[in-house]
Design goal:
Number of domains: 1
Distance between the termini: 56 Å
Helix content: 55-70%
Order of helices and strands: HHHHHHHH
Strand content: under 5%
């Protein structure tokens, strides 16, 4: 928390480069949360900018009752959820047809022959087929290694609900991966 306090103070005092440090420090988590929820690169770029503008405006009210990372993740989450609500895009997978975003610029270079890289690509592909809520919570928990309590603060969801989403997300992810692993006739 000492580093958080220092950075917030630097930004609030308008120190040269402080806001840039703040953005550099939290741009990855902001991007991942928003992108996992929206599945769209252009929307994610705009929404990340909006999230950082909101964070800058709200920074004087930051109370340090959570880490700066959790606070920024919460802002990114809120911005993305509001965006999806405006567009009436379901986030929990309850729609009859799941939205699967296409990302041609993320194609894996499988020519390298590295099994690990191939597996990472398959996991990413499978993750993209999940509903936004499941893929985002899985990303926060497993890839960002965010504790359940922090995820609950970010999402305003009860820990039990988060565990349920994680459980169903893992099952769906396993199904997708098993389909990818089946030999083609």
């Amino acid at each position: 928390m000492g580093e958080d306090r220092w950075l917030v103070r630097e930004v609030l005092e308008g120190r040269k480069g402080a806001m840039e440090r703040f953005v550099r420090e939290y741009q990855d988590v902001c991007w991942r949360v928003i992108y996992r929820l929206t599945g769209d690169r252009e929307d994610t770029r705009e929404l990340c900018q909006d999230a950082f503008l909101r964070a800058h405006k709200a920074m004087p009210t930051f109370r340090f009752d959570a880490s700066l990372r959790t606070w920024m993740t919460r802002i990114a989450w809120s911005v993305a959820i509001r965006h999806l609500e405006k567009r009436r895009i379901p986030i929990d997978g309850s729609a009859d047809v799941e939205r699967v975003a296409e990302h041609p610029d993320e194609a894996e270079d499988l020519a390298s022959g590295l099994v690990r890289e191939e597996m990472r690509g398959k996991v990413r592909e499978a993750l993209e087929t999940l509903p936004p809520m499941q893929r985002t919570l899985l990303t926060l928990y497993h890839f960002d290694e965010m504790p359940l309590a922090d995820i609950a603060r970010v999402t305003s969801l009860p820990v039990g609900t988060i565990k349920s989403y994680l459980f169903r997300g893992r099952l769906a992810l396993r199904e997708q991966l098993l389909r990818h692993m089946e030999p083609t006739p």
